[in-house]
UniProtKB/TrEMBL annotation, chain A:
Organism: Sunxiuqinia dokdonensis
Tagged with keyword Nuclease: no
All copies of domain TonB-dependent receptor-like beta-barrel, residue ranges: 445-989
Sequence similarity: Belongs to the TonB-dependent receptor family.
A GO CC term assigned to this protein in UniProt: cell outer membrane
Lineage of producing organism: Bacteria, Pseudomonadati, Bacteroidota, Bacteroidia, Marinilabiliales
Protein name according to UniProt: TonB-denpendent receptor
From TrEMBL, chain B:
Domain RagB/SusD: 327-419
Cellular-component GO terms for this entry: cell outer membrane
Keyword Membrane attached: yes
SUPFAM superfamilies: TPR-like (SSF48452)
Pfam families: SusD-like_3, SusD_RagB
Keywords: Cell outer membrane, Membrane, Signal
Family in the record: Belongs to the SusD family.
Name this protein carries in UniProt: RagB/SusD family nutrient uptake outer membrane protein
First and last residue of the signal peptide: 1-22
Subcellular localization, as worded in the UniProt entry: Cell outer membrane
Protein source organism: Sunxiuqinia dokdonensis
Amino acid sequence: MKKITKTQSGIYIVALCVCLFLLTGPGHPVRAGGQPVFPAGDSGLFPAGFQQEPLTITGKVTDTSGEPLPGVSIAIKGTFTGTITGADGTYVLKNAPEGAVLSFSFVGFKTREITLDGQTQLDVQLEEDITALSEVTINAGYYTVKDRERTGSIARVRAKELENQPVSNVLSSVQGRMAGVNITQGSGVPGGGYSIQIRGTNSLRRAGNYPMYIVDGVPVSPQTTSTYSTGIFPYTETNPLTAINPNDIESIEILKDADATAIYGSRGANGVILITTKKGKAGRKTALSINSSYGISRVANQMELMNTGQYLDMRRQAYINDGITNYPANAYDVNGTWDETRYTDWQDELIGGTATNSNIQLSLSGGSENTSFLISGSHNRQTTVFSDDFRYKTTNLSANLSHRSNDKRLTLAASGLFSDQSNNVIYEDITGQAFKLSPNAPALYNEDGSLNWENNTFTNPLAAYESTYSNDSKTFNLNLNLSYELLPSVFVKLNGGTNYQFFNEIALRPNTMYNPAFGITPANSMALKSQNQRFSYLLEPQLNYRHTFHNHELDILLGGTYQERENTGLGLLGYGFQSNALITNLAAASTVSISDDSRTEYKYAAVFGRINYQYKSRYILNLTGRRDGSSRFGPDKRFANFGAVGAAWLFSEENFLARSSWLSFGKLRGSYGITGSDLIGDYQHLDTYTVSSNSYGGSTSLYPSRLHNPYFSWEKTTKLEVALELGFLDDRVQVHTAWYRNRSGNQLVGIPLPATTGFSSIQANLPATVENKGLELELSTTPVSTRYFRWTSNFNISFPENKLVEFPGLEGSTYANQYVVGYPTSIVKVYNYEGTDPETGNYVFTDYNNDGAITSPDDNQVIEEVAINYFGGWSNQLTYKRWDFSFLFQFVDQRQKNYISSMIRPGSMFNQPVEVLDVWSQDNPDGQYMPYSSGADAQKNQLHGYFSKSTASIGDASFVRLKNVQLSYRLPVGSYLQDVRFYVQGQNLLTITDYFGVDPEFILTGFLPPLKTWAFGIQLNF
Amino acid sequence: MKKRYFYFFLVALLLASCEDLVEVDDPTNQLGTAQVFEDVQTANAALTSLYVNLRDRSVITEGSYIGIGPLLASYADDLDCYHYDQNGVVDISQNLQQETNTTIESIWKAAYQQIYYANAIIYGAQHSTALPTEDKNRLQGEAILLRSLLYYYLQQLFGDIPYTTSLDYEYNRSLGKTEASAVLEQLVSDLGDAIVLLEDDYRNAERIYPNGKVAELLLARIYLLQEEWALAQQTAESILQSPLYAFQPDILEVFHKSGSHILWQLKPKNSGDATTEATFYYFTGAAPHAYALTGDLVGSFTGDDLRKQAWMAPVSLNDDSWYRPDKYKNLAGTNTNEYSVVFRLEEVYFILAEALAKQNRLDEALPYLNATRERAGLDALASLSSEDFITELLAEKRREFFTEFGHRFFDLKRLGRLDELSAVKPNWVAHKSVWPLPQNELLLNPNLNPQNPGY
């Protein structure tokens, strides 16, 4: 087949769209000025019958507490005539015919309709709609749907719940708020990544579980390729949402089931995260808002470690146990080299600092009847708990413009988002050292302020500060959304956008990070730079037909997607400098080599459609489908079909329940469908050699890229869901329950291989099927709703269950020791720890094969499920007059690896938690730990190895955490400065847990756990 | 009329899903495997990756934590290990390695990856239609030689090992072990091929690529293992007879790159870069942080042995003092005359001495044993009994090759004297003559079972 170059195909698509618009144009030519010209006779939009003398109506709209409501839209029913209340809630409506029906509507309030009866002054009080379920529209990506009519599973968090939290990534504020969505922060170092599991892990590959992110209609890549952040960010993950100021976000919708995600086809398997940014509101007076906050953070939990006395006792006992009387030359802590009376709390010293967080944001919004805008700029600056010198800075600018033509046929929304993030941190996290350094280790600094190496006996942890990692990321997103009502009920739409990211990384490895005794000079200093640019564009022409006739409602959407992404990367390595003062400039390096120079492409094309049919607004059927093509697969495997069917029955609308006094809403819905995943990286199907700058004898090198398999194809997930949504007592109590079952087959993984194949894995499909099923429950209540006091409470809980349902050939495969059919994919097979031997104190493990020795894989037979049993959150919002108070508890019931899994054998030159004091001895025959050893006892080394992979190394890691507390007060001031809001926020304030380790939420050792934060802020609204 | 637009739209969308739309250009940093071997330059670049790997992260990277130089010197009796935070290497130095040892796993993985590279080059060169025959021969010859070297070390370290020349992962993933003697047989045959394929002339005057004589030297080593004394002798003699080589009389020149006693050396990446050995062993004005020479080794030198001054450096702090290996002296930025010597002619002398002695031709053997002694300023030894000869040979070779490529350990092993280590190594037991196969590899490929005895 003829190959079309990138530019050609781009032009092709653009031309198509232009053609479409030109072709559709003649019906209603568009003039240069943008005002559509309507043929005579089209003005029949105004119904006849209002021929009386028109009136001018004035009045004020307030809420039940008397506060004026700006932005309420007032319409003369049956016409397009109307107005909007101003900032003080007043309005003037001209040309209102006598007898007309005025409709007052405002989001979150019950719409009121009042028939004009001669009055010209009309003050209206709107009652808050507690749930406003019928009004709430949910963003489902390609379409919006009224919450009550949706057939799919979509979780949603609104601005109100996210505002002003002292976080730089909105995902931190979403934790615990949505059923079925489990979010873990990757590191307490600002700018790091998150692990997001929407209804469990479908794929056996970590990267195969990333959800899809869409910001204002434009997909953004779930991850930025970082080359040098291995030591500071787990899995080198960063998150694309750090480019968005959380306060700019209007809502987050997470699409979960097949009905909601199948329209994203191959990218919907792991769920879709839709971010909608705030927009200006039509008819609002121009408003300026200034928001500033300051926060301080500290490490949330510390471990209790041995003090010097306990530690030295352990060390000396270890040598006695090993029969060593002369301490070795490198046992500096006990052989007299180091001061044995010194004590340092290394947790305080290394990670005990206070990080600060300051934030300022300005936003300006406003609009006329047809056009509105919002521009916002913010700057955030955070330091780390390691040292003030490390900073994370973000500057975000965003602009939104919405317009609709006078006849309301053309709507346009454009948004631009710019973000500049710069992060400067240590190259390698030193958190691990805080738990392991000997408590009598020497001082960090000499008297002259230089680093103390204690005559080369001390690996000074602060030397790590000399080696830094910085990144600078500039992101520019543009999005355009056009809709034109071509014919009555027929809309032509175009969603398009570009996404540009420039990501620059620098890692500095100066010689000063090494002990000076190593003889390393600036001639060994190294600077690594990498520059990545990513540009992608998206074009999605769509056609939408909506029609209502009698009891039938039909909504058909047909669209196409074309996306192209180009990545270019350049990596440079400078080695050898005259002086470290020049280290940031590669021109000063004695040798510079290019470690990477690459350009890769990703192309993606699809057609998709949706048919939604409603009968009597109570029987709803929703069909979605997509055909996808992705360049990530071999030539014969590129295309695949995905689709779903969803249905809902609003039984509360049925006659037999319609008058029920207690049941206000009832809906049963279900869906079934197939989604997929192409998250495997580009070009994995090619048989190639890769260029490397590593040279020998002046010649560059080429190395085999991978084991070749062109036949792998899409991983597919079938999703099934049944849900019941109930509202009681005027929706003051709402209960949503959902049961789901997702099955992912044709698992696309890097199958682990023994080294004799030359590689550690091969990309291929496994016949394995992973099942994720579970139950989600959401309970929203409004226990109190009076004029001055209002209390809403939301509770959610999810019971996820992950299981490997089939895996033909598992026994003979390289996964034989990793997975067991019928168990979760997160199991570990461990030795069974029985306790300590009453005679020797040595660990005893169960010898399952009775061969007299503990060996793998025959004796590590205990299957431990390292998994979540249930998790959820309980949030409460209390409003009393101008006071707002809210809090959120997050809870997780789970088993995880504990500190023992990464413990170094007690008795060696590393500090230990105080729990290790419970050592076996004649006097303490029930001690959990075997007698200490310095490492010279082969048997003990071996036993410790088994111990760290035994049932003892897995434990309960359940916790309840006070995730967020907020108190705010709104002070009305006057007309110019409308009001001032003061707020105090706390994050991760309290954790209740029995976990043996640093933090139960965060079980990766060696990285900084999430922090506890207090923040104070002021918001001025003009 | 209206319908027309709708159909157009439909058709347009269907067209948009055509195959062409998801056709992408090849990445700029990758080259198709078939193309690589259609051009001498790119085929050479593929071979270069093998040298890069061997220099930077392999079992023969002497100044690294997976290099057998320091690992085996500390495993035997030449180096003391002062690490306390690198568990893999500390356990090896104390003879306490287990099957989960991460250092051992790294060595295994790196070696088999490099073997795959070599096999890929051999296959690519063989099947190339465009490469001239002489380049095909050279590419194959060097790749076979380097592969043989890796197999040789793997066999010596692990005993029975999986041996493959295939690129097929389905086959390679379930390989069983080949018996040690069969591996050696195979290597003799492979090296025979390499000798035929390789020229004796160096392709680079700095001798940074091995020639046919390097293959002969490795072959001679293997003949010693097979106790094929005559073959070992003949092969070693063939090297000595080559006009390319001459014994280096100046002890200070042994590790300088220009000597004609060098058979093959690895050149650092950039000009001025230190050899890995120089950086790795260096410490001054402080206690050792990694390794220092054992008192046992230092004591084995007599005071007038020139090597004691030339190849080791004393370091002292307060009342303590240590010796560090100092064969390579130039640190980064100052290195103009040192490359890492992999094979040097002195070894051929020792092979000859051993092969002759084992054939009871002690008088003929003696000059080859005395060559390095005399260069070091020591008296030549007079005739010895055959038992004493081997003892002297071991002692002399230890002084000559300390910290280099595990010579000490492999010599003790070949000559059946490993038990002598128990005098200085408290954890020494006989089964430790081989290392355990990495546990993870056994789990991934159960055909590698059983584990070596004792682990």
